[in-house]
Amino acid sequence: MTTTPPISPSPQQSPPADAPILVGLLAQFDTVDAVVAATRRVRQAGYSRFDVHSPFPIHGIDHVIGRPPTILPWIVLAGGLVGLLSGFALQWFTNAFDYPFIISGKPLLSIPAFVPVIFECAILGAALAAVFGMLGLNHLPMLYNPLFKSDRFRRVTTDRFFIFIDAADPLFNEPATAELLSSLNPAAVEKVED
What are the residue boundaries of the structural domains of the chain, listed by start? Predict the structure, then answer.
């Protein structure tokens, strides 16, 4: 019985290890109206993995992008309820279960006396859930992003607006996507490589 040796890819088929990889295309715009109109066109074209970057929040851009509402309020509610229940359980355990000590005929499980601690634990749980939920949902801390290599993108914190279409988008085709972005009258379109 003979076995055929496995076929190894030729060096011509695989790119060199240090060759840059296309991450996406970046289009620069000078005004809010231009970037909002361009975002509508990109979404109408069917792209789903793109983002808008601006120096300040643009009202309604999440709706234009098609981003669903955040689940952060539900995370904060869950954190508050966990804090509330933890505060109540802590007081019940210490006062009524572990060391039951009757003072002046007061009940061991006195909910009105528990309210300040329950309230503070609920606020603490909600605050911690808000901070860590926000960090998690925003994928922070993100210490590196290929967009940071772009000299144009440095002005995003000052006075420029950008649309970035990710190369992982199912519709991404470099020439077609570049043509679409060029048709939106941007100040510039550039490749983002890593």
Answer: 21-53+164-176+185-194, 72-137
